[in-house]
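Predict the holo structure. Ligand: 6-O-phosphono-beta-D-glucopyranose.
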Amino acid sequence: MKIEFPKDFWWGAATSGPQSEGRFNKQHANVFDHWYEIEPEAFYDQVGPDTASNFYNSYKQDIAMMKEIGLNSFRTSIQWSRLIDDLEEGTVNEDAVRFYNAVIDECLAQGIRPVMNLLHFDLPVELQEKHGGWESKHVVELFAKFASQCFHLFGDRVTDWFTFNEPLVIVDGAYLYQFHYPNIVDGKKAVQVAYNITLASAKAIAAYREINTNPDGRIGIVLNLTPSYPATNSPEDLAAAHFANLWMNDLFLGASTKGQFPQELVSILEKDGVLWESTDDEMRLIETNTIDVLGVNFYHPNRVKQPSISSNSLAVDWMPTKYFDDYEMPGRRMNVDKGWEIYPKALHDIALNIRDNYDNIPWFVSENGMGVSREERYLNEEGVIEDDYRIQFIQEHLYWVAKGIEEGSNCFGYHLWTPIDCWSWKNAYRNRYGFISNNIHTQVKTIKKSGHWFKKVAEENQFDM
Ligand code: BG6
């Protein structure tokens, strides 16, 4: 069976500044740099963000390798903690400007579209400690300042901008489930942070619309969408899945595409006494500064059932899990190394949801990938990792993307996480995701079988399955 894609489809891969560059020559520590400094044992093998994939020094060779495997687009992020010298004033660091200019120019010289994101979990820690991070509307203003600098400096050549990567993960990780610094558990703060990030994104979009003069320029947000499926068709499980979808998907989708938070969710949060504090002016700003384009990160679906504990026992603090429990569906197909379910058809459900409920906004798969440990198990005699499991994973996901497009979905690209194995937050280098392997001791980088396979797909704009 031939799986074909529209002309000019983006064949790319994604990383982020903090996960690839390394800490060289950085002005400030971000929240993860800081967390590693104070608690290295919280990180897999105690490997921290200093040991990223050395992109700061080897960006030329890395981009050349991306070219070699046929990528026509590459998403990374500009680090706030590198670009800005004075976080309050928003003054820029000239070395950082030179670095990001060089990266952008090198991508363009190699025929690779640079896709730039502004915040990939990496808030400068000073803003967390001094102002309470995303709990603070002052930090929202500072983010808009940083974003404006990026648009002024690089907007002549970068046409595709994204404000945030996975805002829900900041809310979940930093304010509910303790996997992002500052590891607070506070439902009310979590809800305020969700709102403040939405506001920060809208403010950055407003700034972009004022500053941008590039006729091809557009701006969006990257959301991790996790369709939530009920364990059974009982009314209780259906209600659980309905709430999970409202919280995990519709909250940021609604606010960023329509400028409106889902009314049903707002009513629930209000009834539970945790609704965010907002002003009419802010709400107007969110309403009038919606995105042009959407990035969708998809790794795994979410299976839920009705919550087993009574909501009263949670009265001390609010948690979204007041309304649903995770459900381990018997027989589900798993990526055992990572512990995530593999369910490629969810991408088709996402495509149709965007088509039918979110104005069929142009979107692309901004991350999708399979993290596997100890990949040296699959080295062949030529020293190439034979990652057939990754090829199969990508094929199956692309199959459902193509089917969505055939049915009218406006999807224009696919980015694998990640081009070159990179450092990954608490998991450090436990799971490898790249088309290209990276020996973290020698920094030798080698194209995997999937990279060679992807080159052909990108060249032919199709593959056989
Ligand atoms: C995505 C993030 O959600 O997951 C990336 O945007 C992250 O930053 C990726 O690296 C994989 O996560 P992990 O923890 O499995 O390496």
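The CA atoms of residues 192 and 276 lie 5 Å apart. The domain at 2-464 is CATH 3.20.20.80 (TIM Barrel).
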